[in-house]
TrEMBL record:
Top-level taxon of the source organism: Eukaryota
Organism: Drosophila madeirensis (Fruit fly)
Signal peptide: 1-25
Upper lineage: Eukaryota, Metazoa, Ecdysozoa, Arthropoda, Hexapoda
InterPro entries in alphabetical order: Calycin
Protein's recorded name: Lipocalin/cytosolic fatty-acid binding domain-containing protein
UniProt keyword list: Signal
Amino acid sequence: METQAFVVTLFVALCCCGMPQRTEAARFRIPTLPKQLNCRADNIGFPFNLTALSGYWYEAARVPNVDVLECLNVSVPDAIVEDRFALDLRYISTVNGGWHYTEEQVEFPWVNATQYGIFQLHYGKIIVTYKLAVTDYTTFAFVCGYGNISPIPIFKLFTRQRELNRTTIALIQTAADQYGIGSQIAWEQHSLAKCKPLWGS
């Protein structure tokens, strides 16, 4: 499966050259992947460590390549409050060619599915399901997803650093191009110049 091969390449890139200060230790920490990556059909999910996952995450890349936002930062809590798992989102909305600072909070009930990294967002009749596929907690988190009315798969790559280095981006992009999905990747912007309303001067 081409998508699976590309995802393997993505993880190798992140583990081997994603974050320079962790390169030596990361070379030997290639994560275990599901044998197939069909987010809709597969039983993807695991009881993640909330404390380890907590903190700030930056969306580095996403599929499909839709121009709806930039500078997405997600704050994951280290505790559950009133049986709710609340994520604080900050980003620049680029819908209809705009550039608007946005803050919002999305909440999920702290039920079995959520505890296993499966999150559902409801927009009227539209339901989008996201699954935490794999994370090493300190460097990256990879999320896959799907909508109930669309066959198009969703992938999101989050990192602890605002921006990936050029070597990592080039390696992932080259692999994606080889598998015919390079044009589907949207690389997120997190530079201070672009994201000034979020990160300050």
